[in-house]
Amino acid sequence: MSIFTVAGTGSPGVTSLTVGLGLVWPRPVLVVEADPTGGSGILAGYFRGQVAHSGGLIELAMAQRQGLVADELPQQLLDIPGSQAKLLPGSRSHSQAASLVPLWPALLDALRDLDATGQDVLVDAGRLGLEGSPWPLLVGSDVTLLLTRSTLPALIAASSWAETLREATAATPTRLGLVVVGEGHPYSGREVAETLRLPLVATLPWDRRSAAVLSRGRGAFPRRSALRSSLDAAGAALRSFAASGQRRPLTPLQALLARPLPGAQVGGVR
């Protein structure tokens, strides 16, 4: 069992990647919508607002006050049809972001408890630097992926975050990796990886038509497309990347460093 967290700068397609990986994942997987922006982009996007589901992160945030996150987690999940994935929907409003901050460490512990079921976890952490950002998940996952496009503006935006994530995970077993969207426009994945000083895990094509299925539910996800093939390859590469660096248990000091100080919003705004 492994926890994979995906985050990006700007709008490189973090949610589309997370949903796409969930659809092609070969074993049970939990997709966690931890983007603090609110509005549940997956329920409104991939599900086109046609699935009634009132549960999600904010219910877990309330359960956290009683120390019941692990007990409540299964009650908040939604099946993603045609896959082995389940979804934990995100918050319903950006105004709930601050309420999520105390939840993140408890949610990480609850996700770790899924180890007994052999269930993997894919976390959509959204855009880096937002209020309520799931920092404990970013620095406490088995693998954290920085998603970026290959344009110069995207690389400039990603470079400082690559350095921030390196520093934040230096004392933890979390492995950092890179996923590049639109390789060759204009820079190759290798050039991007060298610039950001992160190992390249996967590249994805800029496939607007297939991506629209993932982000806005436009039609059925095609059985054959450049994006689907790339997602299959990316998932295999991601699992291999995680297996090549088996996670060691956190020491007490490492566990402390993975949790934000009271009143602090690491990597975001207060």
SS content category: alpha/beta
The CATH architecture designation is: 3-Layer(aba) Sandwich
Overall morphology: globular
Strand order of the largest sheet: 3-4-2-5-1-6-7-8
Structure description:
- The protein is of the alpha/beta class and 270 residues long.
- The protein has one domain: P-loop containing nucleotide triphosphate hydrolases (Rossmann fold, 3-Layer(aba) Sandwich), CATH 3.40.50.300.
- The chain is built from 12 helices and 8 strands.
- It has an 8-stranded mixed β-sheet, sandwiched between helices.
- Helix 1 crosses helix 10 and helix 1 (14-24) packs across helix 11.
- The model is unreliable at 247-251 and 261-270 (pLDDT under 50).
Features:
270 residues, Rossmann fold, eight-stranded mixed β-sheet
Q: What's the short story on this structure?
A:
With 270 residues, the chain is an alpha/beta fold. The protein is built from 12 helices and 8 strands.
